[in-house]
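2024-03-11 09:14:02 INFO worker-7 job=invfold-0412 stage=load source=structure_tokens
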């Protein structure tokens, strides 16, 4: 009996999708029932018939989950794969590392361009293709003819031609990584390497959002798929260690993950950290509310041994709209990285007054002016009743240079633009920005020398942990405000308040002696430290052993 594996190859008809769960259908011929050319054709045609029912791209992510789970649509080596008509793999149900790579030039054991033959068969309305391949899992099959089947249809969501192929299962390592030119996508003004605090994290997300959506509009989803690894390059504008960007639907299906391709086209709606925070669901809520930050625990690839508990992380998420549909984009950094938390940040300050009529409530935005780059207005603030606005521009890569600025009203209309604004580090520039006129520099004042500052608020790991008598709990405040540091038991009941007062920005330390508020010694076990500070809350686990 000929060895057959079913492969479903689709164009990028529905890659960008929100999450409207597709109901998995049971095929008349399941994957486990494929035994010959006839049943293979029936299996692939069943997949085509199901796919033709999709009129909403929201169905696609749940669909990929169904076809990659052992069951009716996947059985051992009989599985489904998604591919563009040019041979680029969209989704491989058995080997996600192949996604984004090309099979177009792949030859079988006798030099036949098997994928090109399959695409041609689909273009002719459907047909079988014979090929040869020595399956290492099956001894003595090198001379056995294998049969694949290909057909096609037009997507009901994007009018894209979709190619479906079954029976082709040559080894994924033959796939070729797509080549790409990083210069075709404009990098964000604030890159992943610049992220040191919440302000730079938010600016990075804004810039990356613009880079990604501009690329979508310029190239289209099909073409962008072949260049998408640009956003994953370590040390590039969009990836620095554990800082990367992600995108998912408003119901939690991952569209893009800058660090782990295997997470893509998966349901992440039930991701939960050790403290019970439903991470994806909370990020969706924040994005729908206009954008916001979330603190939680997540596995840090740079930390060994945190796979079960995770490391403290803060992420920022917001909504974008593409072709009338909403998606969540975001990024994060690990607050437990004390080297990052105490980086030296260079800065410059701007005090500006917009001159003209209707100057209250204008959004004044600044961008670096770099030849060959699109402006990215990463720093912004709103004018008061007199047209006055103040903002701080900070970066780990230096801030001196020329900038451009613009003012937008409440309707988003640009009412003023200014160019060639010289700004220098460690200076306060006082500017006048007349609507319809050129910028005027009123004066430049020196700032205090830049020094190591706390670039993010949060808890540091307590020392020692575990402990048997007392432990030191350190925390950092990026901005002044009311602070509470409270110890909770595992039932969520407060047992000791260590700090409850207004504090200035800086680094602090408190000691806990494993006693409650009345001074009674507590029993051994796990306790939770909860730090509440301006704009955030963070928790850490403590282990007390007598």
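2024-03-11 09:14:09 INFO worker-7 stage=emit residues=546
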């Amino acid at each position: 009996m000929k060895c057959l594996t079913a492969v479903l190859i689709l164009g990028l008809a529905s890659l960008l999708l929100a999450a409207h769960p597709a109901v998995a259908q049971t095929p008349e011929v399941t994957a486990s029932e494929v035994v010959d050319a006839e049943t293979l054709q029936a299996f692939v045609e069943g997949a085509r018939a199901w796919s033709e029912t999709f009129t909403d791209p929201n169905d696609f992510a749940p669909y990929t989950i169904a076809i990659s789970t052992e069951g009716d649509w996947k059985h051992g080596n009989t599985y489904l794969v998604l591919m563009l008509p040019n041979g680029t793999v969209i989704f491989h149900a058995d080997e996600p590392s192949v996604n984004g790579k090309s099979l177009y030039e792949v030859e079988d054991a006798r030099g036949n361009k098997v994928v090109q033959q399959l695409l041609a068969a689909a273009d002719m309305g459907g047909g079988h293709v014979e090929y040869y391949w020595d399956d290492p899992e099956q001894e003595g099959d090198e001379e056995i003819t294998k049969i694949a089947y290909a057909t096609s249809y037009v997507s009901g969501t994007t009018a894209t031609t979709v190619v479906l192929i079954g029976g082709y299962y040559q080894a994924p390592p033959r796939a070729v990584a797509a080549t790409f030119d990083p210069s075709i996508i404009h990098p964000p003004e604030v890159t992943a390497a610049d992220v040191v605090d919440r302000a730079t994290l938010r600016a990075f997300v804004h810039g990356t959002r613009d880079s990604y959506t501009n690329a979508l509009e310029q190239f289209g989803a099909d073409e962008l798929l072949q260049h998408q690894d640009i956003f994953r390059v370590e040390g590039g504008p969009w990836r620095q260690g554990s800082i990367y960007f992600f995108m998912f639907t408003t119901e939690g299906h991952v569209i893009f993950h800058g660090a782990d391709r295997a997470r893509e086209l998966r349901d992440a709606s039930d991701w939960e950290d050790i403290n019970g925070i439903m991470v994806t669901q909370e990020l969706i809520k924040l994005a729908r509310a206009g954008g916001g930050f979330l603190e939680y625990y997540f596995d840090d690839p740079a930390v060994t041994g945190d796979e079960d508990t995770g490391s403290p992380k803060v992420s920022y998420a917001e909504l974008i709209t593409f072709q009338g549909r909403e998606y969540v984009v975001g990024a994060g950094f690990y607050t437990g990285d004390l080297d990052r938390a105490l980086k030296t940040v260079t800065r410059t300050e701007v005090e500006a007054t917009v001159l003209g009529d209707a100057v209250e409530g204008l959004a004044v935005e600044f961008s670096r002016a770099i030849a060959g780059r699109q402006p990215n207005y990463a720093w912004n603030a709103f004018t008061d009743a007199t047209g006055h606005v103040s903002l701080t521009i900070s970066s780990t890569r230096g801030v001196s240079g020329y900038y451009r600025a613009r003012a937008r009203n409440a309707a988003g209309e640009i009412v003023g633009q200014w160019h060639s604004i010289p700004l220098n580090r460690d200076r306060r520039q006082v500017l006048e920005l007349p609507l319809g006129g050129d910028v005027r520099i009123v004066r430049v004042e020196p700032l205090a020398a830049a020094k190591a500052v706390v670039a993010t608020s949060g808890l540091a790991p307590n020392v020692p942990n575990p402990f048997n008598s007392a432990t030191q709990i350190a925390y950092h405040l990026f901005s002044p405000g009311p602070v509470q540091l409270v110890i909770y038991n595992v039932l969520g009941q407060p047992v000791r308040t260590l700090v409850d007062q207004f504090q200035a920005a800086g680094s602090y330390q408190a000691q806990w002696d494993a006693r409650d508020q009345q001074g009674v010694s507590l029993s051994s076990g796990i306790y939770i430290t909860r730090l509440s500070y301006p704009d955030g809350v963070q928790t850490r686990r403590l282990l007390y052993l007598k």
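2024-03-11 09:14:09 INFO worker-7 stage=report msg="Residues 192-334 form a domain with the Beta-Lactamase fold (CATH 3.30.450.20)."
2024-03-11 09:14:10 INFO worker-7 job finished
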